[in-house]
Amino acid sequence: MTTALEKAKKFSVLHKREGTFIMANAWDAGSAIVLANAGFEAIGTTSAGIAFSAGLSDHQRMSKELMLEKVKEIVDVAGVPVNADLEAGYSENPEGVACIIKQAIDYGVAGTNIEDYTGDSNMPLYEFEVAVERIRAAASAATGRDFTLTARCDAYLTGHPKAFEESIKRCNAYLEAGADCLFVPGIADKETISKILAEVPGPFNVVMGLSGNLLTKEDLTQCGVKRISVGGSIARAALEFVRKAGEEMMNEGTFTFANEQFGHGDLCQLFDEWAYRKK
Q1: Which regions in the chain score pLDDT beneath 70?
Q2: Is the dihedral angle over the CA atoms 239, 188, 167, 122 positive or is it negative?
Q3: Which of 207, 225, 167, 168 is CA-nearest to residue 47?
Q4: SS (H, E, C) the chain
Q5: pLDDT of residue 279
Q6: Is the Cβ–Cβ distance between 184 and 155 less than 8 Å?
Q7: 202-236 burial code (b ≥16 CB/10 A, e <16)
Q8: Measured between alpha carbons, how far is 135 from 116 in angstroms, rounded to an integer?
Q9: Angstrom distance (rounded) from CA 209 to CA 237
Q10: pLDDT value of residue 277
Q11: Angle between helices 264-278 and 29-37 (to 10 degrees)
């Protein structure tokens, strides 16, 4: 069985080797197994998907303790490196961010995302110096380990008037503060992605499913993207399937949705084999 340290080292290497890799995002143990079995070398958690599975909205509506518990469930079954989406670190101060990084490492994660979104519509981004100190504290908490810290800048998602310039400024500051990978959600076209990457030297993550869905892995490789994630898009797609199935049954009295299901026997076999493999 691969140890947590070995997984963390493997995840770090993925960000340093040539080419681009896709990191699909899971929201529970079952989705993690299905995705890992599909052959992904690493998977990420999705805080949105985990929150939705509990009937909660996104953006730290779920307690830190419950989020970490759900992350651990995914880590325990995945068999591959897991990157944990820890939103804004469940703390406004750097010390609190450092604390959750240490907890996540203890739970066996190979890396984490920490964002600079505050959740406050009046001041959607942490002030620059505060945001940098939060990343520096997170990096310090992981010192001496093969651990991949992804710093996320939400300038585009929050509608910053100078999103391009602010993203470059923050990403480079986050790199200097110790981040290993950068992430700017909300950029959806090759031109913008390429321009940002020309100014930001570190490994870069782009999320698909949120925007720019017509772009391919090859497109993003040409831009210089190192890692592609899909955030909560698979979880949202699954819930959309549930919605459509419900509407079909209620409005039409038919059950054709079942034609697209994962076979019961196949799913049981997968989970049984996966459990055996973990022993």
Answers
A1: 211-212, 279
A2: negative
A3: 207
A4: CCCHHHHHHHHHHHCCCCCCEEEEEECCHHHHHHHHHCCCCCEEECHHHHHHHCCCCCCCCCCHHHHHHHHHHHHHHHCCCEEEECCCCCCCCHHHHHHHHHHHHHCCCCEEEEECECCCCCCCECCHHHHHHHHHHHHHHCCCCCCEEEEECCCCCCCCCCHHHHHHHHHHHHHHHCCCEEECCCCCCHHHHHHHHHHCCCCEEEECCCCCCCCCHHHHHHHCCCEEECCCHHHHHHHHHHHHHHHHHHHHCCCHHHHHCCCHHHHHHHHHHHHHHHC
A5: 64
A6: yes
A7: bbbbbbbbbbbeebeeebbeebebbbbbbbbbbbb
A8: 9
A9: 10
A10: 82
A11: 90
Residue type, 105: I
Q: pLDDT tens digits for 50-94?
A: 999 999 998 878 999 999 999 999 999 999 999 999 999 999 999
Which residue shows structure tokens 């990457």? 197
Check residue 212 and give its pLDDT: 63
Say which residue the tokens 């509407």 belong to.
247
Which domains does the chain show, CATH number per domain? 12-235 (3.20.20.60)
What backbone phi and psi angles, to 5 degrees, belong to 24? Answer: -70, 155
Task: Supply 20's token pair.
Answer: 């681009």
